[in-house]
Design a protein that fits this description.
Elements (H helix, E strand, L loop, with lengths): L19 E5 L28 H13 L4 E5 L9 H9 L6 E6 L4 H11 L3 E5 L5 H8 L4 H14 L5 E6 L8 H10 L3 E6 L17 H12 L3 E2 L9 E4 L5 E5 L12 E4 L4 E3 L8 E2 L1 H5 L4 H13 L5 H7 L9 H6 L5 H4 L2
Parallel strand pairs: 1-2, 1-10, 2-3, 3-4, 4-5, 5-6, 6-9
Antiparallel strand pairs: 7-8, 8-9, 10-11, 11-12
Helix pairs in contact: 1-2, 2-3, 3-5
The protein binds S-adenosylmethionine.
S-adenosylmethionine binds next to strand 3, strand 5 and helix 12.
């Protein structure tokens, strides 16, 4: 019985705790980033399958009873989900959640930053791959760079602290902007995190030669700034953090060349209630069907707990072990099951 299980004992087959839930609230996005949604057409989740806010709250409650204390709202673009601040306030009421964050492309933040802050959102991470409007347009197929920069300002103005800026670094696209982005981060008091280009579902233009590795990023920054020191901390966060000689901190998420499966406590719930134990997992666990069929809380918690206890996923390490590494899922596979898309399961 789940009720007799100590929260701290919900660990997977490798002893990794169930702690960190990424909650995709929509598969829709208002950008078409080359590295995530490069196609013209997509197969969308059906609307009637989308979890309501009440259903999301119920599932998050159950997850939190089993040890989840960090939730990150994501998507797709989470701010496309109507009434998101209402969901935020429902989740913020859960005392077990110590960290309630959101990852957004920032386009709609100017409109929503105040409501999100008032609703109790703790932290915001904004994706920003370039400081050049023309490049942004080429990369995302949308002319919205100014809106993103305004969104970044709005976050600070309404009172959020701890802003992070996430940059996917792609060779031939933006690897010449590492220093500019760090300098911009200093100006807006945000910590920049460079993400290695990943071969996730949806990245149909991925190839290893476009990956700018952690080592390349560090060498480039060290050449410009001088000695970089690692920040030593005990954390299961994906970013490894470093400090420049002037004290500025930044992070690198090196899932492609230096995977961190060993400490991964993250799982992902899609907007239609499919639960994925790994970003690379091909199959998920359907939590919507039992929830809508009226299964008891104990039964659903037991399903979550027993599934987690059998988890042995280490997708990024397995990708790294491949002799030939190409696109993870071809376009036909993505059309057959849109849950394989990064924008569906939430990056
Ligand atoms: N729309 C929101 C945003 O732009 O932040 C949230 C969803 S987006 C899928 C979440 C994160 O995944 C973003 O920081 C994005 O840059 C990252 N991402 C998407 N595809 C990626 C890839 N192929 N490699 C590395 N990061 C990727």
């Amino acid at each position: 019985m789940v009720d007799t299980v100590d929260r701290s004992l919900i660990a997977d087959a490798f002893g990794r705790p169930l702690r960190n839930l990424r909650l995709s609230v929509t598969d829709r996005c208002n950008l078409r980033c080359q590295y995530c949604m490069p196609e013209e057409e997509y197969v969308w989740l059906s609307r009637e399958d989308l979890l309501t806010f009440e259903e999301i709250r119920e599932l998050v409650d159950m997850f939190s009873e089993l040890g989840v204390d960090k939730v990150r709202l994501t998507g797709g673009e989470p701010l496309l989900r109507k009434g998101l601040p209402t969901l935020v306030s429902m989740l913020a009421d859960n005392p077990r959640l110590h960290d309630l964050a959101m990852t957004t492309n920032g386009i709609l933040l100017t409109e929503h930053a105040q409501a999100l802050y008032d609703a109790g959102l703790h932290r915001v991470t904004i994706s920003l791959d370039t400081l050049r409007p023309e490049r942004f347009k080429r990369l995302t197929r949308r002319d919205a760079h100014l809106k993103v920069l305004q969104g970044i300002q709005a976050v600070e103005q309404v009172g959020f602290t701890g802003l992070k800026l996430d940059t996917v670094v792609i060779r031939g696209t933006n690897e010449d902007e590492l220093v500019d982005l760090i300098e911009y981060g200093k100006r807006v008091e945000a910590e920049v995190r460079f993400i290695e280009y990943m071969d996730v579902g949806g990245a149909t233009q991925w190839s290893m030669d476009k990956v700018v590795s952690r080592a390349d990023i560090l060498a480039h920054l060290e050449h410009h700034y001088g000695t970089i020191s690692p920040i030593r901390e005990l954390s299961s966060a994906p970013a490894e953090r470093f400090r420049l000689p002037d004290g500025t901190a930044f992070g690198i998420i090196a899932s492609t060349t230096t995977p961190f499966c060993r400490t991964c406590d993250r799982s992902r719930l899609t907007a239609d209630g499919m639960w994925y134990l790994c970003l690379y997992a091909q199959k998920g666990i359907d939590l919507r069907t039992p929830l809508r069929a009226g299964a008891s809380r104990d039964d659903i918690r037991a399903l979550i707990a027993s599934t987690w206890q059998r988890r042995y996923d280490r997708g990024a390490e397995q990708r790294q072990e491949l002799r030939f590494r190409g696109v993870l899922v071809q376009i036909e596979g993505l059309r057959e099951d849109p849950h394989l898309e990064m924008h569906t399961r939430g990056g």
